[in-house]
Amino acid sequence: MAVSLKGRSLVSLKDFSTEEVLQILETANTLKLERLRGQPHPVLAGKTLAMIFQKPSLRTRVSFESGMTQLGGHAIYLAPTDISIGKRETTEDIALVLSRYCDIIMARTFGHDIVVDLAKYATVPVINGLSDEEHPCQVLADLQTVKEKKGTLAGLKFVYVGDGNNMTHSLMYGCARVGMHMTAVTPPGYKPLDRVTAEAAAIGKENGCTIDATTDIAKGVAGADVVYTDVWASMGQETEAAERAKQFKAYRIDEKLMAHADSTATVLHCLPAHYDEEISYDVTRSPQSAIFDQAENRLHAQKALMVLLAGGR
Ligand code: CP
Ligand code: NVA
After folding, report:
1. 66, 217, 248, 297: which is deepest, by most CB within 10 A?
2. Distance of alpha carbon 224 from alpha carbon 222, whole angstroms
């Protein structure tokens, strides 16, 4: 019998079991096929999603909003200046008030603690749409994309090259849950949080895979089935961009680096991309790149998540 995710929040993929992650991916695939067939699925008719943004977004905002429309519901965009979390009002009061109007809350924040608090106080499901520490929705779409390209997840070798940031953390948890080996290759001083690496490695061990971090590019990338990167300076780190560009120079995904990976390796990037910084434009347009399928899958994966959390299926 399928597991029920009704009423749950998604703050981090570490909180979801392997079975729950696989169920979201399976539902995402079903919803994607239904959409391809032109079959409407208004299973969240009458439901409202509140979307809180402290940072900019293209994919997250539009995929959640279109996704809710396709599910027969409605989404409300709350811009950074609309509610000014913690300044105009406390996180607790925002969570309690929105829970009286809406059926799901999605939030993109700076502090990870803000999403944690929203989930703690809200009486409806809360979805982390990116915090300084994690980006779990992106990873659901990433796993869906890898499954589509490779036909499987468990046992593959997934390599992340770049900054040990929010993407790295969520990828570590996501890979650990589905039994995919993952190595994060970062410059010294930019590795993922030790706490996250240790927690993800422990989850991975239960699922027969290794999760680790290194600074050795060639060793990390050797034999990779999937090669992934993200920007060197995340939202909120703009003042560090010039220094980071110097430190990360060797950690760029280009033809030279791809020579160390498997020749059939899939290239992923969560986007937005800074071409000729963390990735070359040519690699993103090569047959190995799946970055736009990956962006599309944000739509399907998040629709699945909303349907399961709101109990629409
Ligand atoms: N990948 C991603 O989350 O994109 P946006 O920042 O545009 O939402
Ligand atoms: N690490 C990036 C991800 C963007 C989707 C950031 O936080 O800006």
Report:
1. 297
2. 6
* Ligand number, closest to the Cα atom of 237: 2
**How far apart are the CA of 45 and the centre of ligand 2, in A?**
31
**Are 126 and 207 part of one and the same domain?**
no
Query: What is the per-residue pLDDT across 223-253, written as a single tens digit (0 to 9) for each?
Result: 999 999 999 999 999 999 999 999 999 999 9
- CB 54 near ligand 2, within 6 Å: no
Does residue 7 belong to any structural domain of this protein?
no
pLDDT (0 to 100) of residue 312: 74
Percent of the chain past pLDDT 90, that is, above it, reads 96
* Pocket flag, ligand 2, residue 133 (CB < 6 Å): no
- Residues belonging to the active site: 108, 135, 138, 230, 270, 298
User: What is the Å distance from ligand 1's center to 244 Cα?
Assistant: 20
Q: Which residue's CA lies nearest to atom 3 of ligand 1?
A: 60
274 located within any domain: yes
CA 266 to chain centre: 17
CATH number at residue 282: 3.40.50.1370
Atom 2 of ligand 2 has which residue's CA nearest to it?
234
Ligand 2 atom closest to residue 60's alpha carbon, by position in its atom list: 5
Give the predicted TM-score (pTM) of the model. 0.98
Angle formed by the axes of helices 59-70 and 291-309, nearest 10°:
50
Euclidean distance between CA atoms 244 and 237, whole angstroms? 10
User: The domain containing residue 155 runs over which residues?
Assistant: 136-294
The answer to whether residue 219 scores a pLDDT higher than 90 is no
CA 104 to ligand 2 center in whole angstroms:
23
Q: Please, which pLDDT band fits residue 276 given cuts at 50, 70 and 90?
A: confident
Domain tally for the chain? 2
Mean pLDDT taken over the chain: 97
